[in-house]
Automatic annotation (TrEMBL), chains A, B, C, D:
Short name of any one Pfam family annotated for the protein: Aminotran_3
Lineage of the species this protein comes from: Bacteria, Bacillati, Bacillota, Bacilli, Bacillales
Membership in a protein family: Belongs to the class-III pyridoxal-phosphate-dependent aminotransferase family.
Name of the gene this protein is made from: ectB
Organism: Alkalicoccus saliphilus
Highest taxon in the source lineage: Bacteria
Name this protein carries in UniProt: Diaminobutyrate--2-oxoglutarate transaminase
Biological pathway: Amine and polyamine biosynthesis; ectoine biosynthesis; L-ectoine from L-aspartate 4-semialdehyde: step 1/3
Broad class of enzyme this protein falls into: transferase
Amino acid sequence: MNNKLQLIEELESSVRSYVRSFPAVFTKARGYKIWDEDGNEYIDFFAGAGALNYGHNEPGMKKKLVDYILDDGITHSLDKATDAKVEFLDKLNEIILKPRGMDYRVMFPGPTGTNTVESALKIARKMTGRTDIVSFTNGFHGMTIGSLAVTGNSMKRKGAGIPLSHTVTMPYDNFVESDNDPLEYFERFLEDNGSGVAVPAAVIFETVQGEGGINAASMEWMQRLEKICREWGILLIVDDVQAGVGRTGTFFSFEPAGIKPDIICLSKSIGGYGLPLAITLIKPELDKWKPGEHNGTFRGNNMAFVTAAESFTYWEDPQFEKSIQRKADKVTKFLSDMIEKYPEMKGSLKGRGLMQGISSDVEGFSEKVAEHAFEHRLIMETAGGHDQVFKLFPPINIDEEGLQAGLDIIEKSIQEAVESMNLKEETVTN
Amino acid sequence: MNNKLQLIEELESSVRSYVRSFPAVFTKARGYKIWDEDGNEYIDFFAGAGALNYGHNEPGMKKKLVDYILDDGITHSLDKATDAKVEFLDKLNEIILKPRGMDYRVMFPGPTGTNTVESALKIARKMTGRTDIVSFTNGFHGMTIGSLAVTGNSMKRKGAGIPLSHTVTMPYDNFVESDNDPLEYFERFLEDNGSGVAVPAAVIFETVQGEGGINAASMEWMQRLEKICREWGILLIVDDVQAGVGRTGTFFSFEPAGIKPDIICLSKSIGGYGLPLAITLIKPELDKWKPGEHNGTFRGNNMAFVTAAESFTYWEDPQFEKSIQRKADKVTKFLSDMIEKYPEMKGSLKGRGLMQGISSDVEGFSEKVAEHAFEHRLIMETAGGHDQVFKLFPPINIDEEGLQAGLDIIEKSIQEAVESMNLKEETVTN
Amino acid sequence: MNNKLQLIEELESSVRSYVRSFPAVFTKARGYKIWDEDGNEYIDFFAGAGALNYGHNEPGMKKKLVDYILDDGITHSLDKATDAKVEFLDKLNEIILKPRGMDYRVMFPGPTGTNTVESALKIARKMTGRTDIVSFTNGFHGMTIGSLAVTGNSMKRKGAGIPLSHTVTMPYDNFVESDNDPLEYFERFLEDNGSGVAVPAAVIFETVQGEGGINAASMEWMQRLEKICREWGILLIVDDVQAGVGRTGTFFSFEPAGIKPDIICLSKSIGGYGLPLAITLIKPELDKWKPGEHNGTFRGNNMAFVTAAESFTYWEDPQFEKSIQRKADKVTKFLSDMIEKYPEMKGSLKGRGLMQGISSDVEGFSEKVAEHAFEHRLIMETAGGHDQVFKLFPPINIDEEGLQAGLDIIEKSIQEAVESMNLKEETVTN
Amino acid sequence: MNNKLQLIEELESSVRSYVRSFPAVFTKARGYKIWDEDGNEYIDFFAGAGALNYGHNEPGMKKKLVDYILDDGITHSLDKATDAKVEFLDKLNEIILKPRGMDYRVMFPGPTGTNTVESALKIARKMTGRTDIVSFTNGFHGMTIGSLAVTGNSMKRKGAGIPLSHTVTMPYDNFVESDNDPLEYFERFLEDNGSGVAVPAAVIFETVQGEGGINAASMEWMQRLEKICREWGILLIVDDVQAGVGRTGTFFSFEPAGIKPDIICLSKSIGGYGLPLAITLIKPELDKWKPGEHNGTFRGNNMAFVTAAESFTYWEDPQFEKSIQRKADKVTKFLSDMIEKYPEMKGSLKGRGLMQGISSDVEGFSEKVAEHAFEHRLIMETAGGHDQVFKLFPPINIDEEGLQAGLDIIEKSIQEAVESMNLKEETVTN
């Protein structure tokens, strides 16, 4: 191990994780490329777990950012007004919200995904006077106690050290394979007043579950969920932290379903450049916070306002969405081909947009693919409760060449994993 | 109202707060100075609520930061290894920890104060197998559910929408005036096994309570608290998010007390430049996290690593601490003089270091002082459950001239508040 | 209203309920008969909601009880040893447990159903070190906070005034009509470690849900539930408070399913004569209570020990079970006939043993039947979250004549309800 | 060990407790006397932990009870109206409540102390819309989860297996020795809105803490507590389960303090004869229960109604209270003499009325006294978190002869304990 990794091992907490899977010291990055201290070049199909949808150090944002800093623009402002903040709000409204017919108030809850989720749950409980939140199996919403209570992962839940409460978990779309009506249970629990489940303040869900295994809910499921919420006066919260900001092909991941959430949680790529930022979009009639009732030191991260405002210009061009969709189609075709070509991995296709992957029923297979990919200098993560999915998260503005290069490495890695795990023979003999 | 403030009113959530007290659109800042869009210059005695201890846009850090960005340094890395992170860890260890004889593991829990507090509570519960945390009256630790449960403020607690649990509040130093032994209660609760209070996993406290009213615990109180914790096997957590990083005159606020916390929470000024960053320092024997048991998208904010590493160089010069202390003495003398000169405000001195203020027993007085100060272009906050304290938070590297200019405005504002509230007459007639 | 009912209205809390449905002042009772102050005779198909399975004032027990009192036998003993207690334990073991091959320790948790449930949940949590309990939709387990948290009824849950926690509700058999595998959900939740549901300490269920609507679980459902519990190390608690002590035809209601619960809760008819008593049967290896870790003033109700010991003699005769079964068959046939004969009531058969009823899809119908029955001097209760079931709970030792007399009144009442609600015409016109 | 005790050891749960301290099989009892199976006679200074204030099998009640049973009076009625219940309510009102100017509704919450406490907490939370209850150090209120959450004893709290929540513990009178104003803390917590303690729904307390160590609150403390509750709109609940029904010299233990609780919990001796019964007295304006919102199978224990109604006749004679007081004075004098005569036991006087004892600072001393007393055939319990108190609980209608006989045994036992623990020598040598 080199000195720098040694130093990390000695000084950093044992909680560190990705440095274990990707043991290199990175120094530079641009677009979908990233380099380590020895000058090795990697393709990044990880994209900061969805925080780098526009790739690393996007040139337009970079220029704006450097100018802002050189000009002594405000860096930190709590929630005082700054030029940068005003421009962010204005562009968010003009470029993103208005054209989509969306009327929301923007809350700055602190600059991370878990901050926006916590703020969403608070306002939902406050506005309804109810305490329970319904979340879904394999949902992932954050690590602070409020968000962790709506997160499914058992290892992370145990990390709380206390029982997590005021939440009820319902089955996500396709959670039970034999079930042809996955929301029937939720409805039955609501309508039978002996069910033990009270009408909740809100439901919170991801349209595609990133950490939970790249599970994509169908449009019908989302529409039916919205309908149930309307019937029962339940608030609908979409956590679009990972699936939002273009990751699935549209700015908001729920657009194709035509639903209208009461509250939307955004973070990760909302800042554009990988800088910490989060916002909570709240329907005006629900925005009844008292001043300062929720706050946070870094809720006004002005550098992120600057890059975010610039990032919105991508969305002025209607071709942008189409280009993502084209690349998504390419990925879908590639993964489908792989599943067919390598039946040994017992794979199934997961996700949508540029948030796709393969779930393998062979234990350890997906992790092995990711390992081989890293040997070939492609960075790619696994997901799901048993790490059963390897997931492709290229920047959404990646060029065709970069995308193809990544896919080539992935095919090679699948092939090697099949071999190194001796799956071929096994299949033959069975 | 100007157009930009109008836009904020229309688009931003009603939860916004400081923009209400300081209705101006800020554009630039340097050191202790900040300018609005009309070019008006303000003195900043707020310092980002402790996030800007080195002032705005400190030139040395600014240079490093711009160079890093121009050079396409890694911006976002989750917890992969980067050059910037390694340098941060190395300097933190060499300049800050080692010289103070401190051996801690560094955890990156997500880049805000509430993230570090949540991580501290989790590891304390995990390591002890106990659920309760003891916090203290008027403590402030954050807005996510875990941190909010150890925060005293009733308005913010109600914002949770659910009962907050697994915590017990004990009286902070001087909470009960007549009490000459403020930790006796805590001890009695521990030693009587019919007390209804179980031995907690940890206590968490601030050495000086920033939001709670600039209440400074005495050195004896802290030492006795540490002793009680040792006797009962309770972990000692210092939340040094606001009082740390030089605010009270030493890097860690607890240094003069000679105590050795098991866990230390740092954020706000740890990044140096006002960029989101937080770390949790954990004694090595307690650092038993599983990989990824707590995580967060922005735990590797490399720009903040760059500025933080640079900020540590301040602490290489032993004169730095002394200079803070000198300025603190000046503030103490100034405020003492004010209390004597304006008995009408019924003031008492609060805090220590460059974290001082006056608590006034006259309802509304402190807010009035802050209002007048803003008219004279000095930015200063109030604190305490009834906003009874006006607090002075200049940058710790402010020069004598800036400090004096600020104090002059404050005296003028006190004088005006006494007049505008007719306190003079009132005092005469009583 | 007569004077005595007036006095009750003035002095008793508004929480009173049955006195509203059955507005008479009762004075005497014997077997299945009960008389009011005016000498009117009623047939009791309510049987103290299962607390009077042997009828009122059963002569054999009455004699033993009076002799005991006249002889100055110990009335109240906490958990000191008494002759009466020893005899109770001995007969319970010799007549009930041993012949069924059951080896359990007997706990006296306080003399009510909710006491035994609370004690069962405590020992399950203590022995497993887990906090969650899985209960089932429409389960009813008691009114104290621990038991209420596993009870489904929403009105009663709201009565807690606090959120109820540390429990998860799963669908009971037939809760979702279209579902042909009602335990699949529970299994999926257990096996997917991203489900948000932790492996619980225990499941608690009733084999036939009395208050919840006379829902009878199938034998297969119970067997499969036991299997799941064994696989996952989950304790199996049967709450046999209402369905036990012969109500379904065997002493324990789960006997036909062949399952072996880890903990069994008994109350209501366990005392034989309607006197407060409850016991918790615990497998010896789980009986790791510390002395006094759970206690209660009336856990040694010796008069109930005396009558209970006598009541066990019923079970020495193998004909007793058969006689209950015969009467149950008669009730089944009668109710089936009614459903066929009066299609207007849209009825379906519920329950088993002498715990049967009809669930009517016509709103208010079942309550109307019970009202008419009371006019004809038969006492009968409704059940279910919407009072949609009228339920027949005759004493299990009722004679044929009494049973027939009761059924005759019920038919008459159904007929009248159909008429008074104009269901006949409605059916015709539809 | 004899056969019967052997059988208990084999069949009864390990949770059994008193049978361990008093290893005899009891068969008969009358007044203050109790006999074991070998005909040995014991003096009972335990009185069913306060459930047998009128002694065992009081002849007047016994006669009424036997007549009622022989006459086939209703035994079990849920909450239907019965003659026995009407008479109970009428006499309670006429003999006990009205003469004391008390206007309360009577709730039957189930027949044990913990049932009445749970019902009191529910209605308090429901009526105030608040969740927290304030209880006091060393309070004891019951074993079900709601009551356990307001109980101080740590061993019993741990038995819950879950964290207990929605409660805050405040220091009882004299909890902190040096404190001359024990309610100042509570007031400070209420008035400082940064205290972390919300205004609670209610406070619940015992005027004399029975299990907690025979701690008697001063009249001033109770009056001040009532005043605080009125100022803050907090409901005042007195748990008079153990101290009520004459135990301290008046029917309600709080009478001498002149306070007017909003809710009063009664059980133990309210039934008169040692039969399970509990009632909750609720101010009419707070009695807003929905029908059946709280219920319980044995809430109508008619045999206990019969004996209770008879027991109230004791209170028709004004001499009764005086006779208790006379005996209490005798006990006070006796215990004071003992403390003086045997300084080796480092004793202090505890309690009031016929609920007194000595707290010894010598570890194990009080248990030793109780052991010796049992050898001399007097039954007496210890109390307090460390069993540091031996407590005298004779029946309140005991005659002078019986009382003296008991005191003689106690003196002998103290003397023997001093000797057997070698305290005399120790004292000499020190």
